[in-house]
Amino acid sequence: MLALAKDSIDLGVVTTNPDDMVRFYRDDLGLVEEPSTPFPGGGTMYRLRCGTSLIKVSAPDPAPTVEAAPGPIPRATGLRYWTISVTNLKDVVAACEGNGRNVVVPPTEIRPGITIAIVEDPDGNWVELLQTS
User: Are 77 and 32 in contact (CB under 8 A)?
Assistant: First the structure.
């Protein structure tokens, strides 16, 4: 059993498109950018804070030659989406739409008191936004 050292996780996203990815997570979603660090083996790791979680957008050098399968959740195995709980779902979705981002699931009440939306980052990864009322 895990003996947790903190109440959150760090999530790594590998990209060949770091500038647009950082803009999405920092400017569209509002995550707080921290200083970048070298990526082990070459490249850069851009660090963005989401509460006490850390989103690590990594651009290895040399760049990866294989891409993950994008698209709907049941299309492939592996990590398909991740969730951020928010209190301003409609505002975040509007900001994403205003910046030309793809909203693949508009705000939708999935059960009483639970509303979600799913936005796509520039690499096609899905980020679920969840709001409880």
Answer: no
Q: Could you give the 3-state DSSP secondary structure of residue 113? A: coil
Instruction: Round to whole Å and give the CA distance between 14 and 75.
Output: 20
3-class DSSP state of 117: strand
Query: Please, are residues 37 and 46 in contact by the beta-carbon 8 Å criterion?
Result: no
Measured in whole angstroms, the distance separating CA 22 from the mean position of its chain's CA atoms is 10
Give the Cα-Cα-Cα angle 62, 64, 66 (nearest 5 degrees).
155
Amino acid identity of residue 129, one-letter, is L
For residue 71, what are its two tokens?
A: 């698209």
Summarised one tens digit per residue, pLDDT across range 12-66 is 999 999 999 999 999 999 999 999 999 999 999 999 999 999 999 999 999 999 9
C-alpha torsion sign, points 96, 52, 57, 125? negative
Q: Show the tokens assigned to 113.
A: 């008191």
